[in-house]
Amino acid sequence: MKRFAGWTLSTPATLLVLVFLILPVLATIVTTFATTAGPFAPYLTFFGSGFRRTVLWRTIQISLATTAISLVIGFLTAYVVSRSPGWLKSILIVAAVFPLLTGVVVRSFAWLIILGKNGILNSALLSTGLISEPLSMLYTQGAVITAMVYLFVPLMVLTLVGVLEAIPDDLLQASASLGAKPTATFMQVILPLAVPGLIVGAVLVFTGSFTAYATPQLLGGEAQMVMGTLMYQQAMVTFDWVSASTIAAIMVVITIAIVLLMTRVARRLNPMAV
Amino acid sequence: MTRNIHPVLIALTVLVFIFLVGPLVIVLGAALSDTSYLTFPPQGLSLRWFENIFKIEAFRRTIVTSLEIAFLSTGIALLVGVPAAYALNRYRIQLPGWLSTLFILPVLVPELVLGFSLLKNVATQFHAPIFVSLVLGHSLLVLPYVVRVISASLAAFDFSIEEAAISLGSPRLKTFFTILLPNVRSGVIAAFILAFITSINDVSISIFLTGPGISTLPIQILAHMEQFFDPTVASVSVLLMGLTVAVMAAVERTLGLTFFAK
Amino acid sequence: MTQALSIQKITAHYGTTKVLEDLSLEVAEGELVSLLGASGCGKTTTLRLVAGFLEPTSGKIELGGKDLTRLPPHQRNIGLVFQNYALFPHLSVADNVGFGLKQRGISGEAKTKRVNAMLERVGLAPFGDRLPGALSGGQKQRVALARALVIEPPLLMFDEPLSNLDAKLRVDMRVEIRQLQRANGTTSVYVTHDQEEAFSISDRVAIMHAGRIMQLDTPETLYQRPANAFVARFVGFENLIPMTVAARDGAGVTAEAAGGVRLTLSQDQFGAIPDNFTLACRADGLAVTAGADGIPATLGLRTYLGRAYQYQCDTPAGHLTANGPLTRPLDIGATAKLVPVPEQCTILAPE
Fold it and tell me: What is the pLDDT of residues B23-37, one digit of tens each?
């Protein structure tokens, strides 16, 4: 009995994932290769359409920008948080967790209020006289990126605080004792040791933004269609399920490829794992 | 330890935290406004938009549905996830490495794709009721959190304690409930909370699976926003934030805030 | 290059808890002084204060006459060897050793030469390209040592450097550390909780307790002539018997302990004996005899030490631990006399 105990206990979860995740998702992908028009026809259609290529390229741009900005902001913030005294650190972490636990709809909605035509930013700019006409900030790439950064910075901060706290104090003291100035310690010790964590954080943010729906829908709308919103539109508005499946397949392949590749890179770069 | 941080960095961090918390404060302000349009700072204070939530039948219904789905899917995920996490830690040697990857797969597969695939290949194919599909989808969505969090607390558990109990004559199953579970209590609570919150907030899976008559709160909020741009949405958002605060307070009381730092 | 360290009346706090009080310590040029004590005695705090990782509430730290007290750690030029080695896991052994040189603007040929020479000295020449993760504990400690020595610091400090090594390696490494330190003549402070380690390699040892130095002396003096009850217990005087002189007769002194126990001690053997004193004896310093003189004792549990039998004894002067010869094991309940052996006992003046 003991020999199979491990298998017995993990079977229900395995079945749940197998039957309701792996099989349906595989079926979705398989249908794209089994159309009457030939095995790769849906992909030829996708990449043959200028509009869709634009959507893909825009999604990549938005995701890369979101990732880069979140990385910089997240890392600097996480550095300060990890060096803060205990009580302040708790407060800062709670302040980062709170938005993280607040839903994506609420957080995107907040930016609607801020960036709208009659929004706070416009009223503030108008009242200071910096502008005379309200700016149209919604439904721009900038709006989507801003809200996405807002969405992912807390995740990045929390991930990187964990990474930075895992660097032993000893190493920083050793560095200082050997004459390294604080900036040298940061560049030569902290940064290299945080690289694997930075990669993990970047992968989380990139895949998250690449497959996001609610935020680009609310702040980008039709004007800034991305893969997620395009897929929803194809599936639920035009009911072109082959097209939606094709987008789904592309999202899955890109997501999993990036995750596998980058976690491998991160592992190779992680000297602590040796 | 002398921890000197450059003042520029500190200023930057302050800005980041204003950026993180500010928008939520603005939502709170907008919810309290007496005007029929969204504005900040609030003009006149009123709770009428909170009353409005409960006047709108769709909100009342979806709040209940969302709670039901969150409880059910979290329950299912715990039911299958706890034994799986236990197996992964206790029988690490006899189980293949890919098994643990399998349980975090729902995180790797984009939620939109999972939602769409469930709609296309399960809900329509087998005429599964909307509510059932939603519960299924959410169970998958939260399973990785359950497995991961409980695995983490099991990793710190010394299984020789369990063996000690068994050697003292406690039956295996009883040992699981009297020795193991109490020791990973905080892990189970954490898993429950994370799973619950994740389910309540989900958009990407639910957007495909909701249908006539049955919707979840976030989807209802999206639908409401398409037609009205009044402070009701802000009020609902504040309600959801209230739930988050309640959860964090619960975590603080049971596990301490350091939990979040992990 | 080597310089003397002077710690002057240092007080330090962690939050509101005082961890060091008015601590002063002078370490001469080229000398190796150990700070010895249980955890929490303040030895590591002292080291961290000198390294600059902590700031004292009051007092002054000087190195070679230069005030260090408010200098940031990276400007202090002190070689540190850490308990957990603290090697940079992302840098090769050679880059670890060269780290300090790089910070001093030494690069290229000059750096490589000094790094290689140092690796040669610690016997790690073939390991320059390895990452620290691929080394054994002893090798890691050698890298840590090389890294601290290569910057030719005027002061070297060791924080329990051997506590993560196994017993055999610990003995080898402490000899190696002492040899390197001697050869360079670098002033050194060595923190440890291991008495044997401290005594074996130090010129002088400071025994610390509750944030203060209880005694600072050569290992020989500490071992044979502890200055107070704390140090006496620490170096293994298990029996402390408070006594009062009842009569003096030339060099002979008759002293009385609790329970009316009387002993005659010779000042020729024990040195000058004050009117009130504590007789401190190791277990070997109380011989279990069948004679007429000595402390009357009822023997309790007997344990076998290899070189002797040890007895837990019940006496009118309290509980005492004494050793008896292997030739004549005595059973529980037997009575005997315990006689102080002057070479294994010492007289503590009242504190």
Answer: 999 999 888 887 777
Peptide bond into B41 cis (omega under 30): yes
Residue B40 included in any domain: no
C272 with C193, same domain: the answer is: no
Name the average pLDDT for chain B.
Answer: 87
Q: What is the pLDDT of residues B41-56, one digit of tens each?
A: 777 777 888 888 888 8
User: How close B3 comes to chain C (CA, Å)?
Assistant: 9
d(CA C70, CA A104): 49
Residue B4: per-residue pLDDT: 64
Average pLDDT estimate for A216-243: 95
C28-52 tens-digit pLDDT:
999 999 999 999 899 999 999 999 9
Residue B175's domain is classified under what CATH number? 1.10.3720.10
Number of structural domains chain B divides into: 1
**CB-CB contact of C207 with C215 (8 Å):** yes
Record: contact A178-C151, CB cut-off 8 A:
yes
- Cα(C303)–Cα(C308) distance, rounded to whole angstroms? 9
**Cα(A232)–Cα(A93) distance, rounded to whole angstroms?**
35
The token pair at C68 is 């260090």
Tokens encoding B47: 């709770």
ipTM of the complex: 0.92
C55 with B1: Cβ contact below 8 A: no
- Rounded Cα distance between C9 and C21, Å, is 8
Does the residue B114 lie in any domain? Answer: yes
Check if the beta carbon of residue C169 is closer than 8 Å to that of residue C137.
yes
Best CA proximity match to A114, nearest among C237, C51, B39 = B39
List of chains touching A (3+ CB pairs within 8 A): B, C
> Can you give the pLDDT at residue A215?
96
- Whichever domain contains C209, its CATH number is 3.40.50.300
Q: Which domain holds residue C283?
A: 236-348
The dihedral through the CA atoms of A157, A163, A168, A172 has a sign that is: negative
Other beta carbons within 10 Å of C269: 12
Q: Which fold has domain A40-273?
A: MetI-like fold (1.10.3720)
CA distance A222 to A232: 12
Residue-wise pLDDT tens digits, C97-112: 999 999 999 999 999 9
For residue C280, which phi and psi values (nearest 5 degrees)? -110, 125
Q: B106: domain range?
A: 56-261
Q: Are B69 and B216 in contact (CB under 8 A)?
A: yes
pLDDT the model gives residue C301 = 94
In a domain, C272, yes or no: yes
- The domain ranges of chain A are 1-34, 40-273
Q: Lay out the sheet containing C32-36: strands in order across.
A: C78-81, C155-159, C187-192, C32-36, C204-209, C212-217
Asked if residue B1 has pLDDT above 80, the reply is no
> Is pTM beyond 0.80 here?
yes
Residues 6+ apart with CB under 8 A from C303: C309, C310
> Do residues C208 and C193 touch, judged by C-beta distance below 8 A?
no
Q: Kindly state whether residue C231 falls inside one of the protein's structural domains.
A: no
First to last CA, chain A: 36
Distance from CA of C161 to the nearest CA of B (A): 20
Copy the structure tokens of residue B223: 């639908």
Choosing from C226, C253, C272, the residue where a domain stops is C226
- The number of folded domains in chain C is 2
End-to-end CA distance of chain C: 41
Measured distance CA(C63)–CA(C5) in Å, rounded: 5
Tell me the nearest-neighbour CA distance from B117 into chain A, angstroms.
5
Q: Which one of A163, A167, A170, A177 would you mutate to disrupt binding with C, by most C Cβ within 10 Å of its Cβ?
A: A177
Could you tell me where the DSSP H helices lie in chain A?
A: 2-17, 23-33, 41-48, 50-83, 86-101, 104-115, 120-128, 141-165, 169-177, 182-185, 191-210, 214-219, 227-232, 241-269
